[in-house]
UniProtKB/TrEMBL annotation:
Alphabetic keyword roster: ATP-binding, Cell membrane, Ion transport, Magnesium, Membrane, Metal-binding, Nucleotide-binding, Phosphoprotein, Translocase, Transmembrane, Transmembrane helix, Transport
Localization per Swiss-Prot or TrEMBL: Cell membrane
Species the sequence originates in: Pseudidiomarina donghaiensis
Protein name, per record: Heavy metal translocating P-type ATPase
A GO term for molecular function: ATP binding
Membrane topology of the entry: Multi-pass membrane protein
Amino acid sequence: MSQSLPQPPHGLCFHCLQPLPSDGGYTVNLAGADYSVCCFGCQAVAETINQQNLLHFYQYRDTSNPLQVPLVPEELQQLEAYDDENLQQQFTRQNDGLRSISLSIEGMTCSACAWLIEQHTKRLPGLTQVQVNATTERVQVEWNPQLLQLSDILKAIAELGYRALPFQSVTQEQEFKKRRRYFVTRLGIAGLATMQVMMLAIGLYFGVVSDLDPQLRQFMWWISLFMATPVLLYSAQPFYVSAIRSIQAGRPNMDVPVTVALLSAYGASAYATIINEGEVYFESVAMFTFFLLVGRYFELLARQKAVSAAANLVKLIPAVAHQETSTGHLQSVAVSQLKPGDIVQVLPGATIPVDGELLSEATAVNESILTGESRLVAKHQNELVLAGSLNKTQPIRIRVTATAQQTVLASIIELQDLALSRKPKLARVAERMASKFVVRILMLAAATFLIWTVIDPAEAFWVTLSVLVATCPCALALAAPTAVTGAIHKLNKTGVLLRNADVLQILPEVKTIFVDKTGTLTTGEFVLQQAHYAQPELQPRIDAVTQALERSSNHPLALPLQQLTKHVEDITHIRSEAGMGLSGCWQATDEHTAEVRLGSLRYIQQWHPNYQPVLAEAQVFLASEQVVLAEYAVGDALRSDTQETIATLQQAGLNIVMLTGDNLEFAQRVAAQLGIREVHANCLPADKLAILQAAQEKAPVAMIGDGLNDGPVLAQADVSITFGHAADLARTAADVILLRNQFSAITQFRAITQLARRILRQNITWALVYNIGILPVAMAGFVTPYIAAIGMSASSLIVLLNSLRLYR
């Protein structure tokens, strides 16, 4: 039996310690032995405990009082608790019957860990999506709760030796502090040992020149062995764990040659010390470990900086809200207990805790946490206010529409995590190269050893060791993750959400940008631009007639004409004629009632066949049977920053093409204002798609649209960009979301993307040049192990520092 488990008194169930049935009950095989249990339930729980590697539960339980012995280990009880529906509402999101969650993974060290977790959990029935990000140590999981429980996912990850829990910012901070202490203690021991061993190594080096006494040399070797041993056994532990896991995953990572080099150098030096013959390189073991740990520590700090922004967003939402009771009084309640329909009050200067409908008349809020824009945004009654915004002007009342993971802020954080979990093509290529490079290094190291065994057997081992150390692809493994994480962090700070990391590579290659008109180049809000009156002195009355008629219409052009004046006119018998307009009876004077029409030019020309508009842009006309009373030009106002942005993009060599479903006259008018030369108007969605596909055959293209009626072309474009706001944010399928709703954000997004791709390419180029360049030098025997350690660590630090430029 491989593991001895204490047996309970005879006749009692091994699991629950209750009497066994007369027929002996069931049996369960644990640690190679059969144990008797009273029922199928005990058998199932015991098997689960065995599967989760929790047999210590049986080894250390106190069986003296069976009634006080827990039936399930605390570790399993904690996981089962996450299946509670009320608890899940605090950290899961629901969409089309599926649930999604962000999990923090404890113990993940590299991409091999990520691959192992991803491949293992994919096998679970009911799991629809799993994306693991080794940089942030998080997993995005989506599953069908009808087929799979959250605890099953957590248990599956636990089977691999990792600990997974729902992501919480406080937990993450504690985990980072724990990881920092983990590295700092090992780094401290390696640093102290390196200094001591290096002093001894210098003494030994000068001793060779001055004929050091053999006994003193032997003594210094033993002291060096004593100092290097804790470095090997304790400080270098992270590399061994990572190497073993990567080998188990079938994807050897850079820690494999590191582990081989450390164990080989220490073993050979220890052997030379024991037999008092040969050479020792304890200083290389200590120094190599120290420099590697320095690189890992800086990598950890860079990773913490990258993911802290999203964590800070969560912390800004208050945990307590002031809820109105049915009697109108206020009570303090946890935000997690609020439900849609509840009413909360928010004081000036306080953070809004939920998404909700504004019940007060008006306020101004700061939405910089969501959009990066610090200017105040006016909010009016019945408009949506968002969790995380700052209420700035007056006390307000809000009817709750969403809390916790259902808020827009939560969807922003989810999109950030999604972007971090998706690697661009160049990053995936670099990752595969690093993995293949490890295998080739091990093969070349073996070849080096064989060649040098023939040339100089005494130097064969140390040259091979230098090859393993110098060519370790640490810099290549860090090149892509650090650059991508920095770019996403920078974009998030500027109010740009990236859902697809491939955009970092594709956008700089785009030469044609297609843009929708309404809601993209324009604000999407119609306003009255011009008006002409046949009798100007009657303007208030004419506007009142128009206003009264338009209030019976839901056409977009009617909206700006529904609030023209405070004057009131009595209109009766209002009728609507489809595709034409509205008509009604107007009490023009006490004695005279006139029939009036409001609508298109064609509708008015039924009464006045020869009438030609005074305003060329007029779309809405008001007329009686005798005279055309007014003309109104209603237009969609251009975004304030559109013209300058279009000019900037064109100066950068980009071709801007307008795709719109509006008529050609209006489209050309907007295009002329913006300097857009190519216009496609009167386009149905299928027409837009055909035009975009034709251009796509020549080169990658980008599409900027509102994300609703431009769905097909946004999905087809190589890069799709939309403007994010409230309810549409979580549903959009675009690659890029501009949270500020400003067209000018495109130029900033493009500049950051170009910088990110440049840094990504610089990192990969440098890593390849270093590894390929140092290889023949190391194989030729010109690099000592400790010089190899310095060179390898320096190359990794260069990559890290280059990526940190994105954070400035």
